[in-house]
Amino acid sequence: MRGDQERIANRIQPLAGRSRERAVLAEALADARSGRARCVVVRGPGGVGKSRLLSEVTRHEHARTCTVLHVSCPDVTSPLRYDAVRALFEPLGLGADDVSDSAVRVLFPGRRAGAPHGNDHETLSGLRSLAANLMASAPLVLVVDDAHRCDEGSLRWLDFLLRRAADLPLLILLGHRCDDVDDTVRRALSRIVGQRASSVIQLAPLTRDEVGDIVATVFSAPPDSSFVDACARASGGNPSLLHRLLDDVRNAGIGPDAAGVLSVEAAEKGVLAASVLNRLAGQPRRVFDVAAALALLGPGAGAESVAALAAATRWQVGEALDVLRGCDIVAESGMDFAHASIRDAVLDAVPVSEADRLRAARILNDAGRPAVEVAQHLLALTELNQQWMAGVLRDAAALSEQRGELEIAVRYLRRVLDVETSGPQRIRVRGDLGRVLAQLDPYAALPIMRELLDRVADPDAYVSFVLNFAMTAVTAQRHPEAVRVLAEVLAMLATKDRGNASPAHRELCLSLESMLMIVGSAEKSTFSVVRDRIERRPLPAGSTPAERRTLAAIAFVHSLRCEPSAQVVAHARTALSFQTSDADPWSERCALFALHLADVTDDLLPAAQRSLDLVESMGASWDYSYSLSCYARVLLHFGDVREAAEQAQTAAKICAQTRGADSTSAQFTAWASALAELGQVEQADEVLDRIDREWFEEATLEWHYFLHTRARVRWIRGDRTAALELLLRCGRSMTDAGILNPVFAPWRTDAAWLLVGLGRRAEAVELVEQDAEAVHRWGTARAIGRHLMARGAVAENPSRAVDSLTEAVQVLSGSPAWLDEARAHHRLGEFLLRTDDTRGARKHLRRCIDLATLCGSRPIAESARALVVTAGGRVGQPLRSPVDLLTGSELRVATMAAAGASNRAIAEALFVTLRTVEAHLTNAYRKLRVSKRAELAAVLGGARTRLQHDEDEDEATFAGRP
C-alpha cells in the first residue's frame, strides 16, 4: 500500500522540526479535551511528512486520556461503503448488539445483508450516536490518514459529526495529498474545511533549520553547517528523502561534518534511484519504458509523444501511468512526476542511450515543442550531424538569452558551430557567441570578435560586429583598442559615401561616432581625442537614437570639462527623452552622470532607477553591478548614506562573483565611499585594498574616485598628511587629463582645509583661487557652497571666515547636497565657537547633527556632538525624519498645501505674500525630497520643535533657571 514506507519511518524516526505545526495540533487537542470540537486538515505533497505529523499527535501525553482511532485509507472500490468508518471502529471490538441498527448496516454489512438499508440520514445519525457514546467516557480523536483516498460516505459522516459536535470533546485529524484528490473527494473535504471548527495546515518542505534539527537528532551530535546545507539541498526539504539520505550516510560510517558533505551529494542520486527501482520492482518492462520516455520528454510532451518514444499504444501508456501513480512516481493528475527530483532518479535508474536522446529530440521537434526542450537532448549527443539541429540550437540560444540564461545560451551556440557548415551562417553564429559571451567573460569574447573583424565582408554586419567589439572592449578595460577600431570604421564609411550619404548612413556613422565618444571618454589617453571630436562637430538635435547618444556623450564630457551646467543639463535631458524601445544603458549612464554633477534631482533619481531596471532586465551581471554602483554614488551624492552603502555592497558582491571582477573598481570604490561616511573606515580601507586593476591609473572616473575616497578615509582616521598627498595626486592627474569640474572628486576644497590645518595657508589660498573660475562657470549651489567653505577656511580674518561660511550655509541650504550642508554648519559652528559665539555655534552644530544623522554620516555627527558639549549645550535627541528639518513656517505652509489649499489661499490665511509661500514650498520640497504637491501628505507627520526647545533649555540653564 502506498505510504507504508513513510509510516514505518514515522514509527522509527522521532519527529524533529515542524514546531509551529505541532503547536497547532497540540492546541487543537487541548481544545477537544476541554469540550470544544476541532478539526485539523494536514495537506501537502507526497513524502512531506503528513503521516509523521499525525502520528505525533497520537503519541502526545494528553492523547493518553483520549480514545484514539486511526485509519489509513485504502484504495476505494465503492464510494458509499463507509470503508474508513468501519476501519476506524474495528479496533474497539464492538458487537452488533452494541450499536444501533442503522450503524450495524455500516459496521457489520455481512451480518444483516437482507435488511433494508434505511435512509442516509438515519445511517449518519446512528454512527454519530456511537461516537457520542464514546465521548461520554473520554475525548475522541479520529485520525484519517491518506484522506485523498477516503470513500465519500466516510467523509460525509465526518462532516455530519463535526457539524453536530460543537460542545463535544472531539478532534478530527485528516491528512491528504494536495496533488492527488478527485473531484468527489475534493468537494467533501471542502465542506469539512469550510466549517468554523476546522483549520488547515499546509505542509511545506522543511526549512534549513528544521533539516538541521533532524540531522542533529539522527546523529545525536551537533552537525556542521555545511553538512546541513548539503542535506537541505539534496533532499529539497522532503522528510522521507532526507531520512533515506541520512540512513545511507550514517550506515557508511560518515559523520555530520564538513567531510560528509560530498557523501551526502553522492548519496542523493543513489537513494532516489534505489527508491525508484524498489517501487518498480516486479513491474512489466513496458512500465519502465514509459517511465523513461516521460522522464526524457518532460510533462508537456503529451501521451502521443510518450507512446512514440516508448514504442507503445496510447492505451498501454495510460495503463503504465496508472501503475506509476500507484508507485508514487507519477502525480495523480497530469503527466508529471510526483517530485521534481524523481525525474532525474528515473533517468539514473533506467538506462538511456544516445539513440534514445536523439529519438526524443526528433519527437519533441516534430511535435512543435519549445526549442529549449529539444536542445537539451542535442547537447547530450556526442555528434551533431543533421542540419535541422542547428536551427533548433540557435532558437534555443535566443530564448535562453531573452530569459537571462546566458551560460546556457553560450553552450547552445558553441554546439551550433559543431553542425553548421555554411560560412556566412558560421560568422553570424560566432558573432552571437561573442556578443553573449561578452556579458559573462569579456576577455574570452574579445579573441572571437577580433577574428570576426578580419573575416566579415558584409558592411552592415561588419558595423554591427564593430559596435559589439567596442562595448566588449570597454568591459574588458581595452578602451584604446576600441577607439582605434571605431575610428578606422568611421574613416572607411566617410570615404565610401562622401557627399551622397543617405539618412540611414548618417545615422549609422553618428551611432559609431557616439560610441567612440563614450568609449574614449573613459580613459585619460583617449579623452583628448573625444574632446577634439566634440569641439569640431555641430550639436545634433536629438531626434534619433544616435543623436541622443551623441548628446549624452557631449553632456558627459562637457560636465567633466566644466562647461556651463545649464547647457550640460539641457543636453542630458534631451538624451534621456527616448522611447523604451530605444533604451541604451551607455547613453543613460553618461546623461545621468552629468545630471548627477549638476544636482538635478527631479530628473536624476527616477531616470537612475529606470536605467537600473533596464540593465537588470538584460541579465548581464557585470553591467547590472556597475549600474548599481552608479546609483549608489548618486544616493551618496544626495546624502542617503545608508541606502548608498547597501546598494554599493550589493553591487560589489555581484561583481565579485562575475568573471573579470579584478578589472573593475567602481563597485568597490562606491562601497568604500559610503562606508567611510558611515564611520566604518577600517572596512572601507579593506574594500579599497581589494581593487587590483590593470591600467587603473588611466581610468578617467574610477582612478580619481579611488584617490579621493582613499584620502577621505585617511582624513577620518586622522592621517592628514597622507590624505593631503592623495588629494594632490588626484589633482595632478585630473589636471593632466583636462578634467576641471570642481564637484567631481573635489580635491581642491578638501586639500585647502588640510593645508590650513597643517600650517600651509599660502598653498591653500592658491588652490582656492585656482578653483574660482571653474566654480563660477559650473555655477551649481554645491560648487559655490563648497568654494565658500574653502574661502572660509583660508581666511585669516575670523569675521571674514564667518561671513564666507554663513554664505556657504545659505547657498547649500537651497541644494540637495545634505552632507555638504552638514559640513558647512559644522565648520561655521566651529568658527563661531572660536569667536566665543556659543549660542550661534550650538545652533549650527545642532543643525549639522540633524542633517548628518538623517544622512547616516557618523563621523560628521559625532564631531558636531563633541563641539556642542564644548559650547555648553545639550545634544538632545536626533531627528527622526526629514520633516523635523522644516522650519515652523515651512511646516505650516506644507501642511496646508498637503490638505489641498492653493498657494493664494495659504498666503491669505497666513497674511504673507504669494512669493513667500512659493519659497517655503520650494524649501519644503527640497528638505522632504519630494517633487510635487501630491507627495506631501505621505511624508508629513508632526511639527519640528525640538531644536528651539533645546535652545530654550540651554538659555534657561545659563540664566540659572530650572
Automatic annotation (TrEMBL):
Residues 879-944 form the HTH luxR-type domain. SMART domains: HTH_LUXR. The keyword tRNA processing does not apply. SUPFAM superfamilies: C-terminal effector domain of the bipartite response regulators, P-loop containing nucleoside triphosphate hydrolases, TPR-like. Keywords: ATP-binding, Nucleotide-binding. One of its GO terms (cellular component) is cytoplasm. One of its GO terms (biological process) is regulation of DNA-templated transcription. GO terms for molecular function: adenylate cyclase activity; ATP binding; DNA binding. InterPro entries: AAA_16, P-loop_NTPase, Sig_transdc_resp-reg_C-effctor, TPR-like_helical_dom_sf, Tscrpt_reg_LuxR_C, WH-like_DNA-bd_sf. This is Regulatory LuxR family protein.
